[in-house]
Amino acid sequence: MYKIFLRPILFLFDPEKVHYFTFSMVRFLSRIPLFPNLFRSLYLVKDKKLERELFGLTFKNPVGLAAGFDKDAKLYNELSNFGFGFIEIGTITPKPQEGNPKKRLFRLKEDSAIINRMGFNNGGIEEAVERLKKNKGVLIGGNIGKNKVTPNENAVNDYEICFHALFDHVDYFVVNVSSPNTPNLRALQDKEPLTQLLNTLQKLNSEKPTQKPILLKIAPDLTDEQLVDIIEIVSETKISGVIATNTTISREGLSSSNKEEMGGLSGKPLTNRSTEVIRFLAQKSNKAFPIIGVGGIHSAKDALEKIEAGADLVQLYTGFIYEGPKLIKQINKAILKQS
Asked: Residue 163 sits in a domain of what CATH number?
């Protein structure tokens, strides 16, 4: 129904406006008593065989919602009714920021893709914490970043602020240094600053009564040498795992007229490269750490390929927009068939 009736109508309008409209509709429908149960009956697959134990957490199923969709933790309870095993909120920064000037979100229909240059638009850490206090049992990842005005030499302070504020309200953390839409952010992926940042967060983590898993989200544009550095950094800092991958700055093979828009590209064009990065990390590290696979998952086949390559969990974003919530159910059912 979504692809036949809803998507053609939604795709007639500006994608950012549609995003907020869809949020409003899901929130409205979720307040009508019968609808949450209806959503769960349509999309949720419950089976013990889908459960995954990773870094001390139990995931009800291995299909999550990637960061960027529910940036401000406004709709995670409602979105969980569509069958997700976990929801990642953010990227959140210490202070509120508007992000980059509009227009900043573009559909590439011919390529089943999206380009965004949102720029970590969010209401800041304090607002997100207040919303997360209303969690009704959803497993939450907290994706954290730095404010645009914070210079890289002070970036660690922003990550510390977010870490302390979110600690009691999320189940795991994701350090985002791989978005292409905040100036110079990707420079923090270099070995020395990244090691320093992760060691600092791990030290803060060790001082807590109980520790939270810390994961690193990496770009798909890293070279093999840089990926080897990532493996060494994970080993040295003893973080819990890696999310592979964020959006790409590559425009190879695109056919849409707006393919040259600045920003990060997500969707089908990223499918193969994301899987390649997962496979490289898994093989070169001898599967030394968990990997969450994200990037270009538009079918159950895409998800299974990432799991076969070495992903322990998968996340959706652009595929969720193009294919609808049915995709979550299809992936979980395909995983069950293979179990």
From this structure: 3.20.20.70
* Annotated binding-site residue? 20: no
254-266 pLDDT, tens per residue?
999 999 999 999 9
Q: Is 152 annotated as a binding residue?
A: no
Gyration radius of the chain over CA positions: 19
Mark whether 112 is an active-site residue. Answer: no
Q: How many domains does the chain have?
A: 1
In the chain, DSSP assigns E strands to: 52-54, 57-59, 63-65, 86-92, 105-108, 113-116, 140-144, 172-176, 214-218, 241-244, 264-267, 291-294, 313-316
Is 52 annotated as a binding-site member? no
Q: What is the pLDDT of residues 106-159, one digit of tens each?
A: 999 999 999 999 999 999 999 999 999 999 999 999 999 999 999 999 999 999
pTM of the model: 0.96
Report the length, in residues, of the chain: 339
Residues 178, 179, 240, 256: which is the catalytic one?
179
